[in-house]
Design brief:
It contains 14 helices and 14 strands. Strand 4, helix 6 and strand 5 form a beta-alpha-beta unit. It has 3 domains: 268 residues, Type I PLP-dependent aspartate aminotransferase-like (Major domain) (Aspartate Aminotransferase, domain 2, 3-Layer(aba) Sandwich); 87 residues, Aspartate Aminotransferase, domain 1, CATH 3.90.1150.150; 61 residues, Molybdopterin biosynthesis moea protein, domain 2. The radius of gyration is 23 Å and the shape is globular. The termini are far apart. A 7-stranded mixed β-sheet has the order 1-7-6-5-4-2-3, sandwiched between helices. A 4-stranded antiparallel β-sheet has the order 8-9-11-10. A 3-stranded antiparallel β-sheet has the order 12-14-13. By secondary structure, it is α/β, with parallel strands linked by helices.
Length: 448
């Protein structure tokens, strides 16, 4: 597959042009990559008004992913999420619907900030079988019941799949429910760009989602910050017509051409034997998962290239197990008291899986840890997201926060899933949740 962005930048570097433009390093090798770090000069195209090389590269990506349209992001899936919310509200206004989104409770903080900025209302979908703050298992029947119970249809349904622990929703069944009610489905697929290249194809766009964001840097070979906004072929015309404008509304006017080049190069990588590499990886991971399970480890999630352990049954917290693996020079994606998550790609060294298995199987099994996380909060909403975001706030110890209204979600990343949404009242169970996950202070509304 052709790489028009890469080709242009390489040719520009080879010409040794006197750079009387940004960036300020002028192509000089302070770190080593400056020669191919350019800005929107003549011929380089413009990211959110593309007519040349960027448009050609995005069309290549669209064909690879089977989307009606694909737009690049150099600011991660967070930018795409904000654009998706904007597009959903724009389409709702054209349809005479309220700016209301029905969303899975494990939504990323970027979704909350987008709703606050755009003054969207959110009704939460709580999990059918809650097991973690990070997951929101949801059946088609539950979604159907919620949509049936609403006095009017929302602007969109917003779901996260896969979630941080590797759980995947039945997007095909859920999208069918959404479309039966005439409601667009938006999917945060930040962790699942590779799903398109499995057999069978498990990508949300292929399964009926109308809008979907993928982080190319999480599971593909692109640089950090590289992402896609995909629009389904049967999505409302409003989405396709306004996609670039939606992205530009929230994006920097100085996109990274290093990241754009990596997205362009990723197209060539995906078109050149990537499916076979993915098959090889998933087979190796299946063997590893089977070995660990037979040894007594509890595995959760059904995402093929993610490995999540629930190690309390083996006698360890997720954080303890992470520390053990650090001793063996292994750094995992995420840990908390209950889980340890590891991510793999075809670029994971072949001997890495063997080293991981050896380290885990050498650990002595200890008595199970019986401590369970606090139940998922179902808080009272005191203010809208926007009201809380713009309110005067103060930071106080969590131990003193019961009864106060959260003004901002104090989060680390990963996984950036808020325990409470801002505007919600902090009850005793929420305080327990904050303390369980090591959050000591929080911002609350100063005056209600």
């Amino acid at each position: 597959m052709k790489t028009p962005i890469l080709d242009f930048v390489n040719q520009y570097q080879e010409r040794k042009t006197l750079r009387l433009h940004m960036p300020g390093h002028k192509g000089q090798p302070h770190l080593g990559m400056e020669g191919v770090d350019i800005t929107e000069i003549a011929g380089a195209d413009e990211l959110y008004h593309p007519t040349g090389i960027i448009l050609k590269s995005e069309e290549n990506a669209s064909s690879l992913f089977g989307a009606g349209k694909t737009v690049y992001s150099t600011e991660g899936s967070s930018l795409c999420i904000r654009a998706m919310v904007y597009l959903a509200l724009l389409n709702a206004k054209e349809s005479g619907r309220k700016p209301l989104i029905l969303a899975g409770r494990n939504a990323h903080k970027a979704f909350l900030s987008a709703c606050a900025l755009l003054d969207a209302e959110v009704e939460w979908l709580y999990p059918d079988n809650p097991a973690s703050m990070i997951s929101c298992p949801l059946s088609a029947d539950t979604l159907r019941q919620r949509l049936s119970a609403l006095p009017e249809q929302p602007a969109a349904v917003y779901l996260t799949s896969p979630d941080y622990l590797g759980n995947c929703l039945d997007i095909a069944a859920l999208s069918a429910v959404c479309h039966a009610f005439g409601v667009p489905l938006l999917v945060d697929n930040a962790h699942g760009a590779y799903l398109k290249f499995l057999r069978p194809d498990r990508h949300p766009i292929s399964l009926g989602a109308d809008l979907c964001c993928d982080s190319a840097h999480k599971t593909l070979s692109a640089l950090t910050g590289a992402a896609y906004l995909h629009i389904g072929k049967k999505a409302p015309a409003c989405f396709t017509e306004n996609a670039n404008r939606a992205m530009a509304l929230f994006a920097s006017s100085s996109p990274s051409y290093l990241i754009l080049q990596s997205l362009d190069a990723c197209n060539a990588d995906l078109a050149d034997g990537y499916e076979k590499k993915l098959d090889h990886l998933t087979a190796a991971l299946d063997r590893l998962k089977s070995d660990l399970s037979q040894h007594g480890y509890i595995l959760i999630g059904d995402e093929p290239i993610k490995l999540t352990l629930a190690p309390k049954a083996y006698g360890y917290t997720g954080d303890e197990l992470h520390d053990v693996l650090r001793v063996h020079n292994m750094e995992c994606e995420f840990s908390d008291p209950d889980f340890l998550t590891m991510m793999f790609t075809p670029d994971t060294p072949e001997d890495g899986l063997n080293k991981l298995e050896e380290a885990l199987l050498r650990l002595p099994r200890r008595p199970a840890i019986e401590t369970a996380p606090p139940p998922l909060p179902h808080p009272e909403r005191a203010l809208s997201l926007r009201e809380a975001m713009l309110a005067t706030s103060i930071e106080i110890p969590v131990s003193e926060a019961e009864g106060r209204v959260l003004a901002d979600a104090h989060l680390s990343c990963p996984p950036c899933v808020p325990i409470l949404a801002w505007g919600e009242r902090i009850d005793r169970n929420a305080v327990r949740c904050f303390q369980y996950y090591g959050i000591e202070t929080g911002r609350v509304v100063a005056k209600e």
